[in-house]
Amino acid sequence: MTGPTDNLRINGERLWESLMEMAKVGPGIAGGNNRQTLTDADAEGRDLFKSWCEAAGMTLGVDKMGSMFAVRPGTDPDALPVYMGSHLDTQPTGGKYDGVLGVLAGLEVVRSLNDLGIRTRHPVAIANWTNEEGARFAPAMLASGVFAGALTLDYAYERRDPEGKTFGDELKRIGWVGDEEVGARKMHAYFEYHIEQGPILEAEAKQIGVVTHCQGLWWLEVTLTGREAHTGSTPMNLRVNAGLAMARILEMVQAVAMDNQPGAVGGVGQVNFTPNSRNVLPGKVVFTIDIRTPDLAKLNAMRARIEAEAAGIAEALGVGCAIEAVGHFDPVTFDPTLVGRVRGAAERLGYSHADIISGAGHDACWTAKVAPTTMIFCPCVGGLSHNEAEEISPEWASAGADVLLHAVLETAEIAG
């Protein structure tokens, strides 16, 4: 049996145009974007999004972390809003869709509701979370972490970028410090639409990823202290080589991840040598280990083994070793009712779909602590993300937005 709203679709052409217009803000050098958080480009993107929300008749609120919340009113003044959202900030060499798709698909849902004259009992809202990427200020998902009470506002404001600038100062500089207390808003539900950032959906020819869980992670920042020395004149047996210790720890991280298969990953994506000169052994090496798995016991065991073995490797080479956890969240199981609504919407709309676990972290991992939450995935070409060559198709983007529309309508309840 079909209902009167079963064939509703968003305006796919308008969604794509919005994505391309936002991509003009903070362009990269190879077709993607460099719109890192709290930069002038981030401020410009926020201004554009604000103008679109106001044109759609929404009211905008901003909290003290700079997160933006645009609300379309419902017919019941006491009903909590149904939120959609993600982030507008990017990696330094980011794509045009990571995060942005979820924010602008939310906007397209609201525009489509306006076009169709559909009112909902619950308000419908869009969130743009500050500093999801963590590229400039670690950890990632910083604002949503404060929103969920996992991090404090003071901690967030004190985070520093590689140039030593603080999050709090930069948020003030771009003019996006809001007056709302972080976490004061209450949500009836939260939906996040995102590109998969992996190859599974494309490989299986599925249009929709029904996200059931999100992996937990630890980011461990390792600081190795050796002794600067000339690479040509220092005998091998007299070196205190922090670079060598790092190399052996990288091999160890690979081994730990492989020993915990299936369903575990580990690697290093950022390394900083000091003084970083071609003929000087490094006096200090700082790098970040990223480990993830949907199994909490396995995740914590991997961390414990890595920390113990890293200390042993460094000690054997006479190198100092300090390890600090700079990012963490436990594995997340998304709300079964909302997951079912996403799956049901895909089936009613005739879109091929598959259940999937998110390998990447998302703001939804934190909102799940305070509200029923789930995610929808869109395929991406070759699984490539955090890369300017990141690509999706207009048809993929529209399909997931259609599912978002229907799942949100079912949750927000069409007003009689």
Furnish the topology, listing elements before pairings:
Elements: H1 12-23, H2 40-55, E1 59-62, E2 68-72, E3 82-86, H3 100-116, E4 124-128, H4 142-147, H5 153-157, H6 167-173, E5 189-195, H7 200-203, E6 208-214, E7 216-225, E8 229-230, H8 242-259, E9 265-274, E10 280-281, E11 284-293, H9 296-316, E12 320-329, E13 332-333, H10 336-349, E14 353-358, H11 364-367, E15 373-378, H12 394-412
Parallel strand pairs: 3-4, 3-5, 5-15, 6-14
Antiparallel strand pairs: 1-2, 2-4, 6-13, 6-15, 7-11, 7-12, 8-10, 9-11
Helix pairs in contact: 1-3, 1-12, 3-12, 8-9, 10-12
Shape: elongated
Query: Which percent range describes the beta-strand content?
Result: 15-25%
Helix- and strand-based class? Answer: alpha/beta
Low-confidence stretches: none
Distance between the termini: 20 Å
Helix content: 25-40%
Radius of gyration (CA) equals: 23 Å
Number of continuous helical runs: 12
State the order of secondary-structure elements, H for helix, E for strand. Answer: HHEEEHEHHHEHEEEHEEEHEEHEHEH
Summarize the main sheet.
9 strands, mixed
Question: Averaging pLDDT over every residue, what do you get?
Answer: 96
Oligomer: single chain
- Per DSSP E runs of 2 or more residues, the count of β-strands stands at 15
Care to describe what's here?
By secondary structure, the protein is of the alpha/beta class. It contains 12 helices and 15 strands. Helix 10 (336-349) packs across helix 12. The chain is elongated, with a radius of gyration of 23 Å.
Descriptive labels:
12 helices; 416 residues; single chain; alpha/beta; nine-stranded mixed sheet
